[in-house]
């Protein structure tokens, strides 16, 4: 990969495709937010339509789409094989990370815009760019970048949970069937990968965060969250910190908690 996982505004020019990936768990519409104002030239990428399959029984809330379906959506949006995509949201990148991870995992150049929407001080745009259909070749999801439910429950991996601490501890569970976390998992809230200004912590500060969670240079890491979206933020942060790429557990807690497997609570 020739582009780092997180880049600043200085990397944004006419040669890149800007992607707005705003998504909200409280019922607000990311598309409506985009239409009210977005970075000039940015396309809108819909989490549910473009970055996830329709969930089947026991798959979790945001299973990965079939590779051919993902390729078709990227092509329709005007994203081609040779394009570099820089994605953003208004939440420190925790939503946009899903698109970036999906592209990087399949060998495409993609990065998060550090600071997201708040990093831009110019006028926002309301017009929707008319990008022509592109050629985007379907590439299978690489097995070495994915984990299943048995992997996530195995002691062979360092498993990190990207959700907020209260959900990890089981004090609150507003969405999924049961509270708690996968036994043996360590809490690494993805929203703490960024500072108060919404920009990523320095690589060494991120390394310290992951080291405290038991991540070492030779560890095999699995990242999960509620539904395999914000877990991608931790995977990009791992790369930024200089660790080897980890694995995404797409089903995440939404899948695991729908089974009768044991759940842990507390720290």
Explain the overall architecture.
The protein is an alpha/beta fold. The relative contact order is 0.17. The mean pLDDT is 96. Helix 1 links the parallel strand 2 (16-20) and strand 3 (43-44). It is globular, with a radius of gyration of 18 Å. It has 9 helices and 9 strands. It starts with 5 loop residues before the first strand and ends in an 11-residue tail after the last helix. The chain has 2 domains: 6-119, Oxidized Rhodanese, domain 1 (3-Layer(aba) Sandwich), CATH 3.40.250.10; 143-256, 3-Layer(aba) Sandwich (Oxidized Rhodanese, domain 1). The strands form 2 sheets. A 5-stranded parallel beta sheet has the order 1-5-4-2-3.
Short description, anyone?
The protein is 24% helix and 11% strand. It has nine helices and nine strands. The model has no long low-confidence stretch (mean pLDDT 96).
What are the defining features of this structure?
Oxidized Rhodanese, domain 1; alpha/beta; 9 helices; 267 residues; five-stranded parallel beta sheet
């Amino acid at each position: 990969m020739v582009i780092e996982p997180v880049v600043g505004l200085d990397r944004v020019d006419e040669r890149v495709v800007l992607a707005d990936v705003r998504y909200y768990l409280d019922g607000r519409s990311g598309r409506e937010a985009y239409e009210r104002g977005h970075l000039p030239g940015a396309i809108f990428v819909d989490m549910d339509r473009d970055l996830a399959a329709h969930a089947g029984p026991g798959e979790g809330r945001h299973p990965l789409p079939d590779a051919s379906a993902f390729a078709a959506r990227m092509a329709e949006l005007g994203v081609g094989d040779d394009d570099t995509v820089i994605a953003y949201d208004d939440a420190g990148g925790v939503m946009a990370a899903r698109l970036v991870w999906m592209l990087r995992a399949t060998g495409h150049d993609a990065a998060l815009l550090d600071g997201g929407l708040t990093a831009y001080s110019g006028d926002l745009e309301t017009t929707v760019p008319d990008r022509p259909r592109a050629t985007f070749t379907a590439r299978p999801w690489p097995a070495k970048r994915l984990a299943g439910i048995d992997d996530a429950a195995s002691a062979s991996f360092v498993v990190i949970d990207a959700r907020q601490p209260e959900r990890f501890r089981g004090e609150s569970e507003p969405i999924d069937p049961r509270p708690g976390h996968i036994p043996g998992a360590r809490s690494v809230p993805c929203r703490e990968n960024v500072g108060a200004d919404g920009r990523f912590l320095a690589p060494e500060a991120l390394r310290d965060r992951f080291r405290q969670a038991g991540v070492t240079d030779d560890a095999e890491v699995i990242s999960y969250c509620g539904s395999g979206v914000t877990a991608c933020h931790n995977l990009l942060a791992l790369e930024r910190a200089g660790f080897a790429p980890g694995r995404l557990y797409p089903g995440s807690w939404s899948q695991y908690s729908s089974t009768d497997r044991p759940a842990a609570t507390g720290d």
